[in-house]
Amino acid sequence: MIQQYLGISPDKLIKAGWETLYMVGFSLIIGSIVGFFIAIVLWLTRKGGLKENPLLYTILNGFINIIRSTPFIILLVCVMPFTKIIVGTRIGTRAAIVPLVIYTAPFLARLLETSLLDGGGIIEAAQSMGATTFQIIVHFVLPEAFASVILALTTGTIALIGATAMAGYIGGGGIGNIALTYGYQTFNFPLMFATVFILIAFVWIIQSLGNRLSQKRRTHQ
After folding, report:
1. Tens digits of residue pLDDT in 86-117
2. How far apart are CA 103 and CA 30, in angstroms?
3. Model confidence over 34-57: pLDDT tens digits?
4. Number of H-type helices and E-type strands within the chain
5. DSSP letter at 20?
6. Which pLDDT tens digit goes with each residue over 77-86?
7. CA 27, CA 89: separation in Å to the nearest integer?
8. How far apart are CA 221 and CA 214, in angstroms?
9. Largest alpha-carbon pair distance within the chain?
């Protein structure tokens, strides 16, 4: 029945769903690690930071601004040679993870930097206790900013879901690719609406979960 109405087998839809989850999951994990490291460096080296370094901050800040201002479809093409070096191929779901990470790491870095700034009001108290820079970050700033960090990661995840739709350009697969290849290009509007509904469901679940976890964290602070 699904195949008759949508013009595509349920197996392809299920496979596309797993491909989307695969791309988002791996890209989010790697991008979060890289983005968090960049955010910490930005937070430390900003004006008035614990390790103020205008040159390093300017370089990192400029890099983030360049990547964030580059449309993802252009970034996707520009990093193809680098993708080939990293994963051995320019096409496929695995290849799509490289540009997705390059896209999401600076985006998350900016969001996480803002989260850390929100949690930086207790630095003076931590310093008065003799805490080291590492202790200030781990035991004071991060716990204070954790609820905001959850929302930042939620926003990054939702942005990644949107970016995976364009990953179909390099054969990345996923729900977005199904919508473009089997829906838009063949004027299959029921399939287009179905894939849009699936993506909306993904976004709704992730946003609701992120909001709930963040709220739960705030109530326990």
Report:
1. 888 888 888 889 999 999 999 999 999 988 88
2. 11
3. 999 999 999 999 988 888 899 999
4. 11, 0
5. H
6. 888 888 888 8
7. 17
8. 11
9. 69
| Dist CA 206 CA 67 (whole Å) | 25
Q: How confident is the model at residue 184 (pLDDT cuts 50, 70, 90)?
A: low
CB 5 within 8 A of CB 190: yes
Q: What is the pTM of this model?
A: 0.86
Please classify residue 142 by burial: count the beta carbons closer than 10 Å to its beta carbon, then call 0-12 exposed, 13-18 middle and 19+ buried: middle
SS3 41: helix
Cα separation, 180 vs 192, in Å, equals 8
Distance (Å, whole) CA 23 – CA 40:
25
DSSP string for residues in 114-134: HHHHHT-TTHHHHHHTT--HH
Residues in the chain, total: 221
* Distance, CA of 126 to CA of 199 (rounded, Å): 44
**Can you read off the two tokens belonging to residue 25?**
């999951």
pLDDT at 42: 94
Distances (CA, A) of 201 to 176, 206, 207: 13, 9, 10
- pLDDT-derived band of residue 121, with 50, 70 and 90 as boundaries? low
**Backbone CA torsion sign across 105, 218, 46, 140:** negative
Contact 198, 44 (CB under 8 A): no
* 79 touches 163 (CB < 8 A): no
